[in-house]
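G., the chain you wanted modeled:
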Amino acid sequence: DVYDDSVDLLNMMTSNLEKISEHGFNTVRIVKAMEELLKDRRGNLTLTNINGLCRIALDKLKKTYEQDIQEKNIRIIFDNLTLSLMMEVNVEQFSKVLAGILKNSMYALLKKSETVTFSPEIFLGLKVNKDMLEITIRDNGSGIEAAGVGLYLCREIVQNHRGTIEVESKKGEYTQFLITIPVYQPKTITPPKEEE
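Predicted structure as tokens:
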């Protein structure tokens, strides 16, 4: 009886230690994300080719998930702009937005592929609508299960570019993000000095 009780106690302690470790990892992740939020993201604007920025994000995704893409036969579609569009953006921060959403899309596809046979697909499309750039990222994966700090960070970065981000998701079917940013960022106008 003492032996059985000891085994039960050890199993319970092991389970509790695993939970503590998991919560500790999550806490570190959240703190790092909060540190990122405290950084000033309004500066460091660089005139950037938007097609090129998106292509680089897709290339990184393909390289990181090369094996999964081949094994699961994942289609990645890029509907780029027909004309080159140069915009002033914070390249580092905007790249994080694209990478974060694309990584979430890949995760949703891989999760769904564990239980269902389907044709996995990620779509990244660019369109200029009047004076707004629209970036659509869509996947036909498992849908959003939890909105973490990463999505909050994406929203903050997009808002710092005077844009908006909308998400639409249906569990087990798809997730779609629509990022809208003004093509021409309004410049700060300095009022003329009064003559003395």
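The CA atoms of residues 13 and 19 lie 10 Å apart.

Shout if anything looks off.
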